[in-house]
């Protein structure tokens, strides 16, 4: 039997919100192994201008991401849902190795398989330099 990741589609507003919160919690763990388990073995990603296929590439991408995006903190918000798809808006803050703080804004489109694993994730992201005093997301 395939791994299941409830809540399962088709989504209601309640289950879509639970799915978004679970994703926020997992990403805030900054644990590539934990996060990768929410995706199908052959999941397709577009993250900015990077295209990934499968859990192994996702894990490596996340390892590199959190090695350079220090003190990462994320907030996600449900935007829309239907059937097996969810759209979210998000923002996260992190600092680079030189101490520069960034706020990144974006939108994601998610598509899930019948077991609640994400089969597709398409993310568009924009970055804004901020000062430490402008941070909104506490660690």
Summarize the structure.
The chain has a single domain (13-134), classed as Nuclear Transport Factor 2, Chain: A, CATH 3.10.450.50. Helix content is 26%, strand content 45%. The chain has 3 helices and 6 strands.
Overall CATH class: Alpha Beta
Class based on secondary structure composition and strand pairing? alpha+beta
Stretches where pLDDT falls below 50 for ≥5 residues? none
The total of helices stands at 3
CATH architecture: Roll
Organism: Kutzneria kofuensis
Protein name: SnoaL-like protein
Question: How is this structure best described in words?
Answer:
The structure is a single chain. The chain has helices at 13-29, 32-36, 55-68; strands at residues 39-47, 50-53, 70-82, 85-95, 101-112, 118-130. The chain is α+β, with helices and mostly antiparallel strands and 139 residues long. It has one domain (13-134): Nuclear Transport Factor 2, Chain: A, CATH 3.10.450. The mean pLDDT is 97.
């Amino acid at each position: 039997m395939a791994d299941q990741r409830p809540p399962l589609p088709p989504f209601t507003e309640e289950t879509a919100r639970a799915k978004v919160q679970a994703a926020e919690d997992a990403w805030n763990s900054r644990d590539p192994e934990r996060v990768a388990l929410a995706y199908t073995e052959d999941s397709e990603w577009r993250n900015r201008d990077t295209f990934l296929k499968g859990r192994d590439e996702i894990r490596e991408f996340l390892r590199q991401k959190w090695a350079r995006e220090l003190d990462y903190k994320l907030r996600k918000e449900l935007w829309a849902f239907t059937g097996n798809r969810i759209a979210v808006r998000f923002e996260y803050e992190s600092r680079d190795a030189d101490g520069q703080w960034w706020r990144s804004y974006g939108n994601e489109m998610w598509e899930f398989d019948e077991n609640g694993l994400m089969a597709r994730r398409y993310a568009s992201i924009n970055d804004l330099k901020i000062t430490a005093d402008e941070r909104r997301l506490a660690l």
